[in-house]
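Rotation project, supervised by the postdoc (A.L.). Task for the rotation student: set up a whole-complex structure prediction and record inputs and outputs verbatim in this book. Inputs entered:
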Amino acid sequence: MSAVLAIAAKDLRQRLRDRSAWVIVFLAPVLISALMALAFNNNSEFRANIGVVDLDRGPAAVGLTEVLKSPELADTVHVRAYDDESAARRAVDAGGVHAAIVVPEGFSAALHGGRATPLTVLDSVDYGLQAQLARAVTESYVAQVNADRLSVATAVAAGASQTDIPQLAAKAALLHLPEQVRAQGLPDDPLKVISYFGPSMGMFFVLFTVGFGARGYFVEQQQGTLDRISAAPVGRGALLIGKSVSTFVYSLAGLLTVTLVSWLAFGARWADPVGVAALSVAMAVCMVCLTALVIALVRTEQQAQGLASVLVFALVLLGGNFVFASGSTPMIRRLALFTPNGWALRGFTDLGTGVRGWDAVGAPLLGIAAFSAAVAALTAVLLRLRRTT
Amino acid sequence: MSAPTGHASSRQAVLECAHLVRRFGERTAVDDVSMRIAPGETYGLLGPNGAGKTTTIRMVCGLLRPDAGSVYVAGRAMSTAAGPAKQLIGFVPQDVALYPDLSVRENLRFFGRLYRLPRRRLERRVDEVLHLVDLGSRAGDRVDSLSGGMRRRLNIGAGLVHSPTLLVLDEPTVGVDPQSRHAILESVHRFGEEGMAVLYTTHYMEEAERLCDRVGIIDRGRLVAEGTPRELVALVAERDRVRLTAVGNLTAYAKACRRMARIEGAARSGEHGDVVELVVKDARSLLPDLLDLAHEQGVGVRSVEIDEPDLESVFLHLTGTALRE
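Outputs recorded:
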């Protein structure tokens, strides 16, 4: 036990004296998480200045403007009126407004059975999100208008008098589409960006400890200190455990630092701190297994560096560390289930949306454990093969 | 062994190796090597590079499993009681095997902890070793800030922290400046005087002669002779080495020399090919004949050196090759 602790303490001391290790495992993930939090997390700061060109001068155009000025959008959308399309275009190009909606002449008349005339959204590549918002509001409003037209046409077809059309149109306009959709089975809390990207970046950078650990082993082999340790009354098991303990502690410290900073400084929220700790411990164990695998697969420090880098990037790309899992393709989502970080991110996502306990981390912990067990078994086979050749 | 003239001590051996064999594929690196080292004895394993010295040492220290044979350290078998056997050995590898990013004291402390020294005793031993290797004033400095000689001394110190019964040094003076080399040899000499058994490998004949109570000569994996330096030199008794520096057809002269009685070997050598080396019996009485022959062959002799036999001569005599080929 004394030898195990001596080896682990020595390895940790060496790592803590390596400034690059501090930067990669502690500083970089915190900084990148902070940047992501600043970039995505301040939703209340989002503003859309939208211009409206009313060439229709009818009730439907007024209705659209009222929707844009409704209390629901008041905090987000600021409406500015323009007399013609070219003035609005100039304003969009100059950045005076982020997007503009042109309501064509005859838009309201279409409600009474006239020919449909399309709305136009003028946008700018610089304000994609605002343009998207303008399009969404417009499409929603047009859907409502089309529903009104349909109800009027249905009434006329059923025998209503042509003279009643204005009245029917007015009544139809008072009705609204049954637009409400209620999601079933989803947690109530929205996932905050930092709650996802904090641990995600932590895991990404902690994966680099695989390279550190494997390279450290070969550096020791090269400088003869590994022989010196082996010449002491230290069993092979004690040597392996000592080195594993240092990798475990270092990885765990990295992950916990990032989650703590994300929580305390950037407002990340997870429903269950025990779940967060369990996922972090599982990932740290997995780092130990991956380090052992790299050592078993290669023969030199350079090879260790190369293989560890490939492994890190393959895992983070497949595991979804750079994108929300929901934003990736079904194929990538399936592949993420073959990565420990993919499983861990699932767990952090559930914890970040209010799910607690085993429901949130049970499957992820089993997934990470299965991955780690497979890696450990492969490593054992490789080491046995190496010893016999 | 072709000339087993050495005598094993009657005291209980600190190290006893019997019939060690180690093969790497088709190559036999160590072939039936046996040796015994008594307490307080300094044993030199002398041989050229690639002779099997390091492989032998790695088996002695339990770093390499022998294909055949046994290693006992103070009666503890390395094969079945590796822990207790290793506890008694202080291993000093050929290259400096230290952590450059740790301090001198941290290195000593770490290697001491591997031998399970209690905290107080460890601290005391670290201080003693720092004093012994004369690095007390640099105890807090990182190893990568030390000079090459200091690192070498610390490399030896790291093998001494746990007060081993047997100190194994693998060519500790390779690539060391003369001053540091002298300091290392002095230290090793002192360890022997203090009662520590030392196994010392080298390809420097002078070191073996100066330090070792007994020497084993190893060549191509086999121990070809063993004994005290005096006993080994006696193997080539009455044979001298003669170096003639001359001008003329030295190849023909060397050939003519080989035909003379009492001349066991003659070859042209020297950096400029201006030397003829001869191994002869009783050089002083043969010298006039050698000079006459040179005169007959039209060879102009500039100088003559006659060396008394030493371990280098022994090695040449036993293996037919030079130690530093």
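Student's summary: The two ends of chain A are 31 Å apart (CA to CA).
Supervisor addendum: Confidence is low (pLDDT under 50) at residues 177-187 of chain A.
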